[in-house]
Every structure is written in structure tokens, then in C-alpha cells.
Amino acid sequence: RFGDIAHGPSVEVFELVAKFNEDTHPSKVNLSVGAYRTNEAKPWVLPVVRKVEASMAADETLTKEYLPITGMPQFCEAATSLVLGADNPAIAEKRAGGVQSLSGTGALRLAMTFLRELCGAKAALVSKPTWGNHLLMFRQLKYEDVREYRYWDASSKGLDLTGMLEDLKTAPDGSVVVLHACAHNPTGVDPTHEQWGQICDVMKAKKHYPLLDCAYQGFASGDLAMDAWAVRFFASQGLEIFAAQSFAKNFGLYNERVGNLTIVTATPDALERVKSQIKMIIRGMYSNPPAHGARIVNTTLRDPALFAEWQGCIKTMADRVLMMRAGLRKRLENLGTPGTWNHITDQIGMFSYTGLNPTQVAYLVKEYHVYVMKSGRINMCGLTTGNIDYVAKGIYDAIIK
Ligand code: PMP
């Protein structure tokens, strides 16, 4: 019976990682996967995470009992405060809260399922381009009308605001709209505060459901509050919103699958209703979330000394990305690489949308063993002081060929 099942497609980013791992070339560089790397091109377990884990290991009061279906309440509270700001009136008014999720992906999936099944949403919009999983999830959930709104303007290598607003306006009323809260993946281009205001006005007029994807808080500017600006702004505008938080990037907890779905509603009663339904969605999917990552995040967010240490780690990561951006731009310009390269330093977050086309990308992979996504997206964290000259030369060569 299963012999006739068609093969599913591969997931580009993980396929590239597998090829990279198999590659024996001594100069190989992986610029594909969205994870932080040190200047030695090594994964980084944040020292603050190691410290908290050591104390957890020694704590015999911690058991392996089930968490509640919606997760560890203290963690959800701390995570919600982190994204909305502890002094957010919606928290004081008890109309903002959180549900623990399987990282950012799980939070998105919970919100999308709730909006489809309980609000009857049929249409969904994501930015063009976006992180591929958004489209996959909407399709799996049988959204009938899945569209892309214009976002990346190839000529200016910036935001196509006019196109974006037009597409939001022409979409069916009550569409679910995924908005990247900061550090847009893959383009590294975020709206300005003024532009967010215009986006919000259209969202309101069209009664769209805002689903803010907040996977990189701290990675855009290095400042946690600044990176949550869009989420806080939407919450302040009288809209009911979902914000999908991930602690994969800013805590380096990629495999712990710890996230939070922050929910802001008009009334405390509405919040309880929404949470009770999301609880049933979780119960039917995986019953209860894992505790380890939530304990690490909760402990760190609640202890002022650990929190300060964590902020230091975020700064280390954000500063290294900035240094690599400046370094790559300078090298490409010094080599006289055709085109303009200011977008490398204008874009923010972990990724840069280089503008390399698929042929140039294929050249880089084949000739230089530099692994880049077909879209031309590169993870700045894959660059190091040891490989940046080599990568710049590879890009130069790929373009002039
Ligand atoms: N949204 C975006 C835009 C992302 O880039 C990512 C990570 N690649 C996520 C959400 C969620 O990732 P995770 O499920 O690992 O938290």
C-alpha cells in the first residue's frame, strides 16, 4: 500500500547541510542554515545556558512530571513580558498571555490552526519571499487561498511598501497575515516605524488577523525592546494579535523546541476562551510540551544577574554579525565586484539577501564549496575572519564569470 506513495520533496536548507557535512574540501564554508556560529565556525552553547543547566542538573527537586498542556505558567508569563514589555497595559488588564509552544514553528502552527478551525479564516498571506515553512503550514492546514504579498524590491534591494500595502488591501477581508516582527528572513529588510503604522492601518481596515513571527528578538538591533517594537505597536493599536516567539536563536536553544505563543485580546474573557481552545489543539497534537528549555529560559529571564549575562551573549552574537557585514561589504567593494553592496550593511539580523542568482549560487557551491541557498540568502554567522576573504573572492568570481 505504501509502495505507491510519491516521495516528498527535500527541504533545501537541511539538504545543503547534509551535502556540506559530506564535503571533504578543506576550505568549505556553510552559509545556509540559520544558526549562530562563533568566529571559529563552531556552534555556541551560551555560557549562561550552561550555567543554568548545571544548576538544574544538581537540583533534585526538579522532576520529570508532565507539564500542563499549555506549558509552564511562569515561563509563559516571562516570555509574554519579554515580547510585550513587562509594563504593557494589556498584561495589567489580563488580556495578554502566553501558551508554551514547540519553538517558533509550533507557535505559528498553533495560531494558524486556531484561526483556521475556530475563526473560519480561509485566506492567508505571507511576504514574498518568506521563510518556506509559512507556506507549507498554511497549505497543510488547508487554507483555501494562500497568497504572497509583495515585499522585496529587487531594484532598490529594499522594501516594496506600495506593493505590500496594495496586496494587503486586495486580499479577502479577514485574511491571516504573517508579519516578520524583526530581522526579516530571508531579506534582512524591516519596515520603518512609520511604515509599520501604514501596514497596521490596512490590517485594521481589512480586519486581517496579524500573526507576528518573532523568531529573532535581539538579533536585529541587539536590543530586546527595540526588536519587539512592531509587536508592542500592534498590541497598542487595539488589535487582537498573535506573536510567535522562538528561543532557538536568541538563547541558542535550537533543539530544545522552546517557544511561546503570545496572545493579546480585547478582553480578559476572550483571552481565556482562546487559550482554552488552543489547549485542545495541543492536547490532540502532542498533549504536553517539553520542560527543559522552558526551565532554562524561565530561570534566566527571572534572575537579574542571569538576565544581564544573557543580554551580554546576545550582544556578542549581534556584534559579530555586524562585524561580518561590514567586513564582507568592504571586501566586495575593494575587489571591485560589479553591483552595489550597501545592502549588505543596510540589511539586519542573521541573514543577508545578496542578490546572487541561482547560477551564481551553483558556481559558489561547485567551485568554492561555499554553501548558499538558491535564493542567494546567506547566513552572516557562517562568515569568520578566517574565511571572509575566501568567500568574498568566491562571490566576486561567481559574478564576473
Ligand atoms: N520564523 C522564521 C522567520 C524563522 O526563520 C524561524 C527559524 N528558522 C522560525 C520562525 C522558527 O524556528 P524554530 O521553530 O526553530 O523556533
TrEMBL record:
Alphabetical keyword list: Aminotransferase, Pyridoxal phosphate, Transferase
Requisite cofactors: pyridoxal 5'-phosphate
Enzyme Commission identifier(s): 2.6.1.1
Catalytic activity: L-aspartate + 2-oxoglutarate = oxaloacetate + L-glutamate
Stored Pfam families: Aminotran_1_2 (PF00155)
Boundaries of every Aminotransferase class I/classII large domain copy: 27-395
Quaternary data: Homodimer.
Family statement drawn from the similarity comment of this UniProt entry: Belongs to the class-I pyridoxal-phosphate-dependent aminotransferase family.
Note: In eukaryotes there are cytoplasmic, mitochondrial and chloroplastic isozymes.
Protein's name in the database: Aspartate aminotransferase
